[in-house]
Amino acid sequence: MDPLLENRLHLTRRHFFGRSATGIGTAALASLLARDGVAAPPRFGGLPSLPDFAPRAKRVIYLFQNGAPTHVDLFDWKPNLQKMHGRPVPGEYIGDRRFSTMTGKADGKLLLAPVEPFAQHGQSGAWVSELMPHTAKIADHLCFVKSLHTEQVNHAPAINFMLSGGEMPGRPTLGAWLTYGLGSETDQLPAFVVMTSITKDTTCGQIFYDFYWGSGFLPSRFQGVKFRGSGDPVLYAANPAGISRQMRRGLLDDVAAINRLKLDEFGDPEIATRIAQYEMSFRMQQSIPELADLSDESERTLRMYGPAVQQPGSFAHNCLIARRLVERGCRFVQLMHAGWDQHNSLTTELYNQCRDTDQPSAALVMDLKQRGLLDDTLVVWGGEFGRTPFLQGDINNRPRWGRDHHPYAFTKWMAGGGVKPGISYGGTDDLGINAVENPVHVHDFQATLLHLLGIDHERLTYRFQGRQFRLTDVHGHVVDEILA
After folding, report:
1. What's the pLDDT band for 11 if we cut at 50, 70, 90?
2. pTM across the whole model
3. Which end of the chain is more exposed for a tag (fewer CB within 10 A), N or C?
4. Cβ count near 77 (within 10 Å)
C-alpha cells in the first residue's frame, strides 16, 4: 500500500485529537514537574508511552564484530576439543545441520583445537583466550552469553537478522527502533550514530551495507547517521565559503516554512524528516567539531585505548568517540568492525583482529565505569554467528587454517546497563558445536536488550502494510537470569 495513503487512512479524527491531547497533556505535565524540580533529564522525541517500566539502561554501545569471531578460540574453552584435535567430527554432533556451501556436509571434517591457550580470570573464573589479554582483565565486569544461536549461515542475512529481526533488508534496525521509541537525551547530536572500521591489510571482503543501520519502514529520520573515518565526520555540515551562520539560519527558516506548507498539504512523513535533518545539520555544525576534538582527553585515557586511538577510522578511535557520544546524550552507538571472516587466515588475521579490538573494547568498559556511566550504559560485543569447531583447510598447513560459519552456537559479552557482571550464562556441548544449556535465540537476545531499556518487546510495534511489526517478530523471551 502507498505509505501516504496508509497514513491518511489511519489518521482518523478521533486519533488526531487523541494524539493532540496527549501531546498537550504531556507538555503541561513536564512544565509542572520542571517547576517543582523533579523532572527527568530532557528527552527529545520518542513515544509518550515509553518506557513501559523503569529502565536499567539509558543507552547502548554495540561493538559489532562483522564476519563472526570464533567462539572456540576466544571465550568458549573446550578441553575435549583440545584432546580430539585432528579427529573427524562425530556424526551425532552434526546430524542434518546445514552449513555454508564452502563446507557443504560436515561429515569427515577434522576437529581443530584452539590456536592459543586459555586461562581462567578474575573471581568469576571466566575462561578467556590469551589472544584477549585486556578483555581477560575485565572479566569480572562482563556477562558472557555462551549459548546464542541463529538460523542463517551467511553474513549479510545473519547480520541483518541480528540487528533487525529479519533476514531480508527493509526492517528497522535496533538503533532505529530505540530512537523511534525512546528519542534522545540531546538535540545537538543524532540519537543513532554508526561508525565503521576494518583491520589494516585484512583479506576479509566484508561490506558495510547501509541497511545494517537503516530505519526500514519507519520514517527515515530514525535511521543511523554514519560518521566517516577520515576528514569531516559528517559531510556537508560546514557552511560553504562566504556563508555565515546567521545567513544559514535565515535560509533554513525559509526552506522549513516552504516544507511545512507541503507537509500540511500532503502529510508525507519524509517531508518532516527533511525539516528535522536540516535542523540537526545546523546544530551539528557546532557540536561535531567539539565532539571530534580529543585535546581535552587526558594522556592516561588515550593510553588506555591503545596506540591507534588518535587515528580517525580506527576501532580504538571509534570506541573513544562512542564514549564521548553517550556522554553527550546519544541513545545508540553502533560500531562495526570487519575482518573476522577467517576461512583460511585463523593463524594470522585472527591475531590482528584481537590486537586491534581487544584493548579498546576493554578500555571503553573501564572508561565508562570510571566516569559513572557504565551502570546505565549497556555495552555489547559480538558478531552475527560463531565459527566451526572443525577445520576448514589442510590440517598439515597451519598458516592456512580456517573455520567456516557456524550459526548453532556462539558467544557475546555484555557489560553494564543492568546485566549481571562476572557470570557466564548458557553453554555448548563438549566440542562447542551446539548450544545445549539455556539456549538463547537471537530474538531472546533482542527482547532482553529492549527490556534493559524499559521496553516490553511485545508492545513496541509499528503498523505497516496492514500488520503490526516488532523487532522480535512473533518470538523472543527475556533472559531474566542475566539481569542484575
Report:
1. low
2. 0.89
3. N
4. 21
